[in-house]
Amino acid sequence: MDQTTLLAKIGGRAYFLDWVRVLAFAFLIFYHSGMMFVSWGWHIESGHNSQLLKSIMMLTSTWRLDILFIVSGVAISFMTTKVSLGSFTWQRVVKLYIPLLFAVAVVVAPQSYYEALQKGLFQGSFWQFWTTRYFSFSWDPNMEAPFPTYNHMWYVLYLFHYTIVLLPLIAFINTARGMHMLARVEAWLARGTRIIILPCLIYFAIAYAFGNTEITNAFYNDWYAHSIYMFALLMGLLFVRMPSVWAAFERNRRLSLGIGLTSYTLLLIPAYISVEGFTIYNNYLVQHIDLLVKWSWMALVIGYARHYLNFTNAGLKYCNKAVYPVFILHQSVIVVLGYYVIDWGLPGVAEYFVIAIGTFAICIGLYQLVIRRFAVLRILFGLNWKVSNTTDTEHHSMHPTPAN
Predict the structure, then answer these.
(1) Which helix (H) or strand (E) segment is 326 a member of?
(2) How far apart (Å, rounded) are the C-alpha atoms in residues 40 and 48?
(3) pLDDT tens string 36-57
(4) Phi, psi of 147 (to 5 degrees)
(5) Which pLDDT score is estimated for 130?
(6) Of the candidates 183, 163, 299, 284, the residue with the CA atom closest to the CA atom of residue 233
C-alpha cells in the first residue's frame, strides 16, 4: 500500500492526543512528587502521609501509564506510514534504547544514591557511590531497586520491546488487506457504546487469565503488565487507523464520566469508611473496581480531550518537543530536590509544591539551556541531533504524533 493512501486513512493531526500526552507526562511530576508524601514506600520518604494525595493517586495509578501507551501506539502507527519498517526500527533504537542506556548509567543513578543516603546504606560522595557501588549488579533488600536500575525508565524499556513484537502486525495493517479488515472493524466498533464496553471486557478477560494483577516493572516476570500495556499500545496502533472510533469516544464521554465517577467512589469507600464487616469488599471486588476505573477514565479523558482540546498553539508545540527530555530527567530531579527540601522544616503541603514546581522549573531549564543546545545531549535525551528549520516536522519525542 502506498504511503499517500495510508496517510489519507489516518487523516490530519489529532491535536487532542498531543494534549493528552503532554498533560499525562506533566502529571507524572505531580504523581512522583506525591510518592514521598504517602505511605506506599518510595526512594525518598518525607514522613508525611497525606490521605488527600493518596486518594488522587489511587484514581490515576490505575490508568495513567495505559493512556500513554495508547498515545504511543498512535505515534507508532503514524510513523510506519512514512518510513520503511527497517528505518522505523532503527529510529526506535536511536530514540528509545540509547536514551534508556544513558539514563540507566547516568540520569537514574542519583535516585539510588540519595535513597541509599537517606536509608543509611551508604556514606560518601556521589562519585564514590557511582564508581564503587552503583554498577555492582547487586540487590540490597532495603532498596527499592537493584544496582544499577532503570526506575521510571521502565516505560521506555517496555515500549521498545512491545514495538518490536508488533512489527508483523504493523506490516499487515499497512497492506490493502489489512486496511480493509480495519475498515470493517471500525464500522462495527464505532457503533453505540461498543467502544466503552469491548475494551473493558478485554481488560476483565486479561485479569481473569492471570488471576494476580500485581505489576512489578521487573520486565522478565511482569506478564500481567505486559498484557495490559501491550493491549493499550495495540489500541492506539489500530484506533488511529479508525477515525470514527475517536468520535465514538467523544460521543460516549458522559457515559464514561458516569462510570468513572461511580467506580472511583466505590474505590474510595474502604479508604474513608471501615468496611471490615462488609465481606463484599474483598480483593476480588476491588480488582474489578480498579479495572472499571482504569478503562472508564481512559475513555473519558480521550472523549473530553477530543471535544475540548482538539487544537494547537505555540505552547503545545514547545511541550511536544520538551516532554521526552523532561520525562527522562523528572524523577531524578524529584528525588534529589526532595532529599533536601524535606529537611527544611516546611509544612507538608509547602514541601510538596516546592518539590513539584521546582522539578518543573529545573527540568525545563535543563532542557532549554543545556540539552537542546548540544548535539550529543540531544541524541542522549531522544531528540534529533540538530534542530530542524521547521517546528512542526520535528519528531524528537518518545512517541511523536502526526505532523501537519
Answers:
(1) helix 314-341
(2) 11
(3) 999 999 999 999 999 999 999 9
(4) -105, 125
(5) 98
(6) 163
